What does this fold into?
Amino acid sequence: MALTGIQIFKLLPKTNCKECGVPTCLAFAMNLASGKAELDSCPYVSDEAREKLAEASAPPIRPVKLGKGVRQTTTGGETVLYRHEKTFFNPTVIAATIPSDIDASALDAKLKIFNAFQYERVGLNLRPELLVVKDAGKGADAFAATAKKIASESEFNLALMTENIDVMKAGVEAAGFKRPLLYAATAANLDEMAAIAKSNDLPLAVKADSVAALIPLTEKLTAMGIKDLVIDSGSREIKQALQDQVAIRRAALKAGNKALGFPTITFPCEMASNLDMETLIGAMFVAKYGGIVVLSDFAPESLFPLLLERLNIFTDPQRPMTVVEGIFPIGNPDENSPVAVTTNFALTYFIVSGEIEASKVPCWLLIKDSEGLSVLTAWAAGKFGGDDVGMFVKKCGIMDKVKHKELIIPGYAAAIAGDVEEELPGWTITVGPREAAHLPAFLKTK
It folds into this structure.
């Protein structure tokens, strides 16, 4: 059970040194209790207190790091059942399978395609993180060669998928430097898989035939000192698999069942006969509550929707994505270039700036802080009023960059035109289109 602020305060040094960034140890304790601070911010907490606090403040679902390098990622670490309660922290890891019997030239071609999968959205780079090397029964050498090539020649993290101990050892020897996830320990091979994972400090997936059957396996592994676990309830029937995901999350968060407090791995690739259906199932697990979703392949029409869904679900609903307030030159504008203004909601900015770029008309784009709200919402909430926009134009410095006095405002904010004119005497306020898609034609006629 989580400690209260007062309970945490009793374990702190009570120096009020302010080195943690807040004025008192009591304030720091309250921040710790509410999840607004990290224990590492206190330089003077004792080792004994640190151990107690770390255990008490650990998330009910253990965060597990996968891989090494630029795409190292973390799965798990979640603290809520519903996104609106707080937020989901570590995005679902999206993976594809590679059979171990693939020939070198085919693997080169596939990696070249996979490495190019990267999409820009609201200033973020969206891409998959994991490849699963699946034992095709061609022996340890083939498995190790495939794993080594992927680990050495791509940025992807790895999962090694085999229940054969000798094959797994060969894969770990070849690609262990990339810290792969080992899949999977079962009731039949638990001790051997545990030995490999523990001796190489690697995360281990645990597979059983049901949620209940997972509990003795994870309890045994944690007693052995292996804590970086990923769990698989074993179901490959869609309805049961979804029920298992919900049951595991509820057990960990609501019942405090530490034996199930681990991220999950799901296999849409084993639940459908085509990639389209896999994508639909994968989308379900991104929402509820797959830590890792494994597809049979990556294809743009499948991957991009999953990455976009993941971005939306794992964005803090209480903190809209924003861009900084200021002046953004697009296309090398000069003193005669048009001036437009909009809000600092990230999606609004990137759509509007993208359409301006597409128009090939150099433009000054003014971004006003609206607390991350879109144009219509910001206007309705009083965050994008005429007086405020006018004052912003005066203070932002655009008057020093242009010699004309014309401002383009969004069509959805047409009602503020009069107030902006009052705040900016001598300026012409032009109402632009409502939809950003109409900006190129609008700018070309100006």
Observations:
- Residues 238-253 form the longest helix (16 residues).
- The mean pLDDT is 94.
- The two ends are 63 Å apart (CA to CA).
- The first strand starts at residue 64 and ends at 66.
